[in-house]
Every structure is written in C-alpha cells, then in structure tokens.
Fold these 3 entries.
Entry 1:
Amino acid sequence: MGWFSFFGKRKPKAKGGPRDARTQALSNLNEVRETLLTPEREALLQQAMAVRRAKAKILDSLTDEQRQKLMLTAMRTLLREEGEPPPAPEPKSRSR
C-alpha cells in the first residue's frame, strides 16, 4: 500500500477542466453582450468613457488642497436639502 492509499481512491479528473469552463463562460458573456449592447449604446459608452478620462486628467492636475476643497464643496452641495440656500463662501485668508 502506498502513502496515498490512506486517503482513498483518487477521483477521476473532470473532462474539460477550468479552461473549458472559462471558455464557455466567455462565450455566454459574449452572447449576452451582443443582445444587450446595441451599436448605439456601445458608441454612447465609448463617448462617456472618453469624457471620464478627460475629466480625470483635469482632476489629476489639482493640488491636494484644491482637491480637498472641491470634494468638500461637492459634499456640501450633495448633502444640502432642497430649498436651502447655498452656504456662504469661506473668507479668504490674507497672508502678509
């Protein structure tokens, strides 16, 4: 008796393996993609991604302080309730 006989008989490997399962999953995904993603919708998504990349480049050029102020302003705007006036601008500090 060999060492591995302690664990019982080896299970036969499933035919096809993970590569075939992956190929099948990709095939299914492509079929769903073709039915849900019309050419017009795909063009719209491509355009939206291009706009997002352009805006991300603008944000990348901001300093940490500018980015923090922008985030704070956005949070205040999003959290403000309807009808509430916008907050007064913060006074600028003067360094002399």
Note: The mean pLDDT is 79.
Entry 2:
Amino acid sequence: MAAAFANVVKALPEAAVESRYMELSEDAAGEAVLSMLEGLEARDALVQQLESVTHLKASVTAWHCAACNRLTEFLNKDCKAEGHTMTKTSTLKRFWTCDHCNARVTTLGVRFPANRCSRCNNPSLEFTACSMYRGPKNLKPAGGTTGLACKENLFATLEQHPEMGKRTFR
C-alpha cells in the first residue's frame, strides 16, 4: 500500500510533527504535579503537628458520674438510664502505647494508666507515652503472599492446585 501511494504521501520526520496543544498539556501536567505536592506538604505539616502533641490540655470535655466515680469521654448511656448525676468537665487527655503489644491507650484526668492493657491484659502496667499521631496503617501489597485468595493460591484449573488436585469429589 505504501508503494501505491509513495508519490502522493511524503513521510515526515518524527521531530517535525508537533501538537498544537503541546504547551497546554505540559502546563496542565505541571499544575497537576504542583497541586499534588501542595496536598502532600499540607499532610506533612499536619503529621508534624500531631507528632508533637502528647496530651490535650483542658480541650477535652469529659463526663463524670458521681455514683460510679468514673470519668468518660462520652456520655455513658447506662449511667444516664439509671439516673446517675452526670457532670460535664474539662480534663487532660494523654496518649500511651502498651510496651508488650503496642496497643494505643488513652487516659482522662490521670497522670499514668491505672488499668491493664485492654488487648493483652498484661499485669505489669508498662506503658510508654506517645504522640496523638497514629501513623499510616500498614497495608499489605496487592500481590500478597498470605491468605486464602492471594496470587499464589489462585489456579486456572482444579488439577493445578497442589492441595485440591489430589482430592476426588464424589
């Protein structure tokens, strides 16, 4: 086909072909990158601010039940249903991590945690003060090597599966 139209169509060099809107697309791509970087910078500033906070002073409103002598961050429905007198107070909130299982614990109005860790129930009461920032969750990669439906456990046919191919279904 190229031989039939060789005298009509002339091949242009690759460098000579340019789009009319090349500059606009480059500007748009540059603006998209800058806006993404601005968002990441704002997130980093927030992370730095949260990492510096280890306790909240008087900005936490808590509820104190006079009958149970408990201080809770939210209004306790059981105490309210039983008719206990609940008073709203401002208190100090501190953040802790358990030294055994790394669970996060918060305390209201006390200097140190007085109860055991709710996750591991370790009686040693060893906690370390931490910041308000929890950090990103550790996400497993998409092609993870664990779990029933991971990439390594998916086979096209039943005979290819090392466990199921041996079995006969009747």
Note: The radius of gyration is 31 Å.
Entry 3:
Amino acid sequence: MLIPLDKNSKKVEPSQDFSHPHDSAIKVPPTRGIAKENTNENAPHNSSISYTTTEFSAGSQDLQDEQSKGYDSSTWYWEFIQTPTASSKPYLVVCHRMEDWFYPVSDYFTILRIADGELPPWNATVLLLPDDKFCAEHPYVKEAIKRRNEAPFLDTQGDNSPKLYNGWNDGVFWPESIKSTKVLRLLKDRPALVRLRGEVFWRNKGHSCSDVDFIVDRQKERLFDDCLTIHFVQGVSSAYLREFSDTGLRKGDLGVQATADIYEKRIIHPKANPNITLPYVNFCSFLIRYDPNNLVKMFNSTNYDIDAIVRHMFFRQLSEYKPCTRVSNCGGTPYTSYKCMSEGYKFHITMENSLVDGYISEKLFNGALGSGIPIYFGASDVGSYVNAKSFVYCNISRSVVDEMRTFYPRAPKPRPFLFNRTSTGFWPTEEEMFTWADGYLRSQLEPCVRRVIELDVNDTAFREVLSEPFVTNHDLLSGQYPFRGIELALDAIKNKK
C-alpha cells in the first residue's frame, strides 16, 4: 500500500539552530546506509533520527526494483517510507548521496536521503538537486520545485527588503541584478533548492539559474547574474572523502584529523623522523595521467582549456635544470595520490587545469601532504585560503593565458588549434605545439624555475618553507567558511533583516 504524501505523512518541525559544532576539533559523521530496522543504531547522520518502518535492506532486489520504476505521480511515496523525528539541526535533503563539496559542512545538518525512503519535512533547510532522472521524478522534489515556483518574489527595494550585500561577502556572491529585478523567492514551507556546478573547464556558458535558489560553485569568476552563488574550496573535501566515502579509510590513508594536524603543523609529517629530516632522495614529482611528450593526444582526449599546457611546459623547463619524475601509475583515487608523492621528493608539481580564481582543487592539497614543497599554478587568490609561504606559486600573467586561449577556443570536440603551423590535417605536430607554447610561457615560468632552484640548493631556505603551516585558517578545514555562506543566503531568502 502506498502512503499519500500529504495525508498520512508525519510533519516534522526542526529547530533552525545554526550553531557551529566545530569550535575546536574537526568532526564529521560517518556515512550512512539504508536503515534495516526500527532502531537509532542505523540512523543516518546523527542519533536523533528514528524510523517508523522499513521493509527493504540495503542493496536488496526489492529496493532496486522500486528505484528503477520511476514515478508517475507527484503525490505518492514508496511503502517503505521512514519518518524522522525532530532534529536540533537544520535538515539537508539529498537524493542519493551527498555531493563531494558538502562533506566539510555535513555535521551542521541532519542529512535525509530520499533514496532511502526518508520523508523530509516541508520546512527542510536545503534540497540538493543533482541532474538525474531519479531526483527529477521524485514526488518530494517535484512538489518542492512547484512550491518554489509559486513562492512570491522578494521585494529587494522596499522597507521590508532583506539584508543584501554587494559582490563577494563571506563566501557568497551577490549579483547587482538581484537588487533591481525580481529573482529571489521567499523561503517558507519549502526547502531551498540548490545545485552544484561542475568542473570549470567543461561547464556550459549559461547565464541563468532561475530554477534554483542558489548555486554552489568551486570557482569565483564565471558566475550567474540572477541568483546567489556560494563558493567552496574543492581541495578541502579531500580528507573527508578519504574518511567518509563508501569504502572509508584504508590502511595508510590520512583521515580528517590527521590531515588537519599536518596542514596546521601540529604534528610532523608521518614520513619525517624525530629530527624532521626527511630522506629526500628524489628531486621533483609530477603526477600526471597524460604523457608530457604527447600533448596533442591529451587535448584530443579531454575538454581541457589551453591552460592545462602550463604544467607540462613547466615540467619540461624545470627538467632542464634537474630531471623531474613523471608519476603515472599511482593507484587509488585523486584524493589518495599524495601517497605517491611522499616517497622522498623535495618538490611536487601540483598545477591546476585552469587559471580561474577560487578554483583550488585537490592537487595542491595533496602536494601539502606529500612531505615536500608543492609548486602551484592556478587561482591567483589562492593565498586567501591557504598559506602562500608554504608553497611555490608560478605567477603566469592573465593576459598571456587569455591570448593563448584565443588560439584554442571552446567548441565541441575536436577543437581546432588556430595558431600557424606547417603540418597538414586538424592537429599540430608535437614539436609545433611545444614551440608555440614555449614562445608564450618560457619567460613567464622562468622566475618560478629560479625559485625552485634557489630552494633546492639552499637547505635553510628549503626548511623554512617546509616548516610553514599549509593552513592557518581553521574555518576552512572545519567547514565554517562555506557554511557561513549558506547561512547568509538562507537568511536573505527567508527575508531576515
């Protein structure tokens, strides 16, 4: 028997307490499976949640069959609905799983997964919307979208307007247009609809987010002008993904607390001996999937912008001084690749695919766990989030990168290279590619190469950089940075003064 959504469902009124649980230590709840019994032992996220009934165990064929059916109506739930009791934390509703970015702030919320048959309350705080059929067809999601579309626009100019800001403030981007046009809708008796934007180098160029209340983004440049954007630092999620993914920590992995202790230099690196003398037997590591001598194949196989060529050109240029080692067979995931760096390398090339402010991926964060000094190219505002004294920053002129991009414009694959060449066919030769890129980048990379050489020959200077904490702002690791952004965005659409 199916349970009607609005007739027999127990309504939950959670407290909207936005207190910060991470005052001194980093804590994250364990990952959740589908509850098998009516017991708090299997409750998702925290022990304040209990269930009225559940009939299917995790991974059962019955559950898989139900999930594969989809939904023909917006008014019914499955018969294995589970109703949570009231929580002292605001609710976060997810369809299948939490997005990677949300792990650092997860302990501020009570997590409800509708794929597990959990029935969220209508005053749930946030509903994450992945772009998949299951989520789009779920009756709770359909009703949440309907309620948002019917919600009144906020008056952003009158006496009763909410508190708004200009530009970036506490990790939230406030576009000027929200003050002059009606785009923000009142949050009442519905969850805020939120979507995560994808990688910076393949995303669409769309300029609207009219179907959600705010966007969560890993970069701070290419922004929508009709909703709020909350910034998060992608690399922070690395330790949380190692510890709280489906597989969890495995032997030799660094969890959240150990990662934070190393970043903040509360403990020495596990590879160090008591005298903090690391056995540096190798010069420099470069973890890369693609062969640095076959860049044409890399661009032919990926959606990378031309920015991605910088790290390969630096690898070649630095190797003119002393050979760097390409590491290509590192097992595990991108979040555990730091283990391949901690094999006696003094330096690690940890450069981004794209030069975009705010976009700081797991690469630099892995390098900071590699027991050597990271060498970084990427976000020019990286020093706003981590300690710039703890790594070598390669400062490539934005105008140079912009000009290089005009020779490899964004287009469906295969994308043409537009610089002059003698080769026939669609692609340049490897030599033509290197010659073209070297003409733009050699002089730009030379100061960075000189700095690495200086640290390599001067052990005192090397140790000074190595002793610098990678992270000095505890809010970044504890999740308070993006959570404050969520608070501000929610206060605005709730029309709080």
Note: Confidence is low (pLDDT under 50) at residues 1-83.
